[in-house]
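Entry:
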Amino acid sequence: MTSYIPSITLPSQVFAQPAASILLPIALGTGIGFTIRPVDTQRTYLALKQPPYRPPPYVFGPAWTVLYGLMGYSAYRAWTTGMASFNPETRELTKQGATLYTIQLALNLLWMPLFFGLKRPIEATVDIVALTGVTGYLTYIWGQVDVVAGWALVPYMGWLSFATYLTVGVGYLNDWNLADKERERPPGKKSTTKYVDE
């Protein structure tokens, strides 16, 4: 069982305001995505050996935008419903969920820099397995507070399960080494990195 840990939990104002609650994960996820540079990310993704059923790169942006929005809505819904309750157990579950939510958001935002930025598939796999576990527990906790909040996280859980499959599959098929999928371009080219499949 988790405890509510205020020092590592997002401020309650984020959860209490629908716009802040929904837009924060969208903005953070978009920011991380653009920090890693989408063109480079897509090139790396396409250069790697992939397991069956991998989606095309253009699917990820819209999918994550929707999932981040649902995640934020779930947070808002659970917080406003749970903190309005007169039941102290419900209020405690709500606050525990807020800590879990913050932890899962941090783990979520860490995955892309690990996988695409640092090209560390083992660490990215550990991250996504932990993320899926924390999110599963969060879904259970917030589902007790508010059924809609719990169900709003179900698509995210499904996507995380699929993303775990992709992460492990790419790691395994590429011998857990993503860095050797690149080689230097000849001098005078715009970018100094060339991917194996270019």
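Residues 194-198 have pLDDT under 50 and may be disordered.
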